[in-house]
Amino acid sequence: DLDEDAVRWLERQLDTHRDALIVVTHDRSFLDRFARDIIEIRDAHLHRYGDGYRGYLRARDAERLRIRREYELWCTELARADKLVVTNALLSSEIPR
């Protein structure tokens, strides 16, 4: 682990670097101060988030919420379709042949 002085020195060095950098760290406060864009590797794809680490967290949480709502809607629709199948099966069994 780097002490605060070393982290500040590293931030100054990295801040003068204008090319893309790959930084791997668990130091979230460092990411929050330093990162401009976050690229997440998920499901064998790259997902780019702008607006720094906090922007990444907001976007990630919004995406998770959207996926959860879509799943809940899908479950509701599936239950409705299942109910229609059962209802129609009962109705069709009452039709004289």
Question: Keywords for this structure?
Answer:
mainly alpha; 97 residues; ABCF_ATPase; 10% strand; P-loop_NTPase; single chain; Tylosin resistance protein TlrC; two-stranded antiparallel sheet
Task: Describe what you observe in this structure.
- With 97 residues, the chain is mainly alpha-helical.
- It has three helices and two strands.
- It has a two-stranded antiparallel ribbon.
- Strand 1 and strand 2 (45-49) form a beta hairpin.
- The model has no long low-confidence stretch (mean pLDDT 90).
- This is Tylosin resistance protein TlrC.
Using DSSP, what is the number of strands? 2
Overall residue-averaged pLDDT value: 90
Are there runs of 5+ residues with pLDDT below 50, and where?
Answer: none
The major pleated sheet works out as: 2 strands, antiparallel
Radius of gyration: 25 Å
Whole-Å distance between the termini?
80 Å
- The largest sheet has its strands arranged as 1-2
Structural class: mainly alpha
Order of helices and strands: HHEEH
Protein name: Tylosin resistance protein TlrC
InterPro entries: ABCF_ATPase, P-loop_NTPase
Organism: Corynebacterium variabile
Brief summary of the model shown:
This protein has 97 residues and is mainly α. It contains 3 helices and 2 strands, in the order H-H-E-E-H.
Summarize the helices and strands and which ones pair or pack:
Blueprint: H1 4-16, H2 28-34, E1 38-42, E2 45-49, H3 52-93
Antiparallel strand pairs: 1-2
Protein name: Tylosin resistance protein TlrC
InterPro entries: ABCF_ATPase (IPR051309), P-loop_NTPase (IPR027417)
